């Protein structure tokens, strides 16, 4: 069996989960693992020959050990610095798609993914119905999309004004709206919390990061859950009616966890789907 060789960038919660998943599969193999702190890789007994010392060297490291897919699960800044290089070299799965809220980053990657030899894959994460959203966007008939994410205040990693509002939710013990608006700005304010919204903006490509609406709610009553509500409407028909879809996904989550339990399995499934679609931007 030909094994797909995967380069893993980041070895935190998701990276370690994916490492275990990839090494447990007959059809997948690790090409390299990079982490900002090397000792974490050594502590986890990652074989020495798989450890990439410097991300700057990933091309030469994979010269004799072909790499089919590079997966980032570290930080959005990785895509900004290395996204284009990764995509020139292999298919690229971007685990922190909030990076695409930077217009220059998105435009550069879209052009390269369209004209080049490799595909850019965006995991759906906790987004339900991503393919359906994309189909409506392809047809140009997606009129609006709103993603509401409700979590316990301890599940957010925020700073500035949003963090202050989050503290208000804790003190008042009432559900508090932290943000309501276009998701481009929100991606910069809460990069670790709204990857699902960024995936939605990619799927809803006729609306994009400016027109997809994101709502972030801190709710002390949401302990144990990440709740994601998706509301989509289609274009108005000549008789004035329009398609309307509402879904609510309740994802069990440990108290204080940024990532819901089912999202890990969703990531593994995305790794299997991030394959063979050719050049372009693909939801997986
Ligand atoms: N798409 C999704 O639905 C989804 C779900 C969960 C996590 N994520 C994203 O995946 C990434 C990893 O998540 P995690 O839960 O494993 O996080 P984590 O904090 O457990 O691990 C992050 C890893 O990346 C490293 N890192 C952090 N900042 C870095 C930087 N600026 N440059 C290089 N390395 C850096 C850390 O040392 C750590 O090893 C995050 O960006 C997170 O937002 C996306």
From TrEMBL:
Alphabetical GO biological process terms: NAD+ biosynthetic process
Aspartate/homoserine dehydrogenase NAD-binding domain sequence ranges: 10-123
GO molecular function: aspartate dehydrogenase [NAD(P)+] activity; NADP binding
Domain Aspartate dehydrogenase intervals: 174-263
Entry's family note: Belongs to the L-aspartate dehydrogenase family.
Name of the protein described by the UniProt record: Aspartate dehydrogenase domain-containing protein
Lineage: Eukaryota, Metazoa, Ecdysozoa, Tardigrada, Eutardigrada
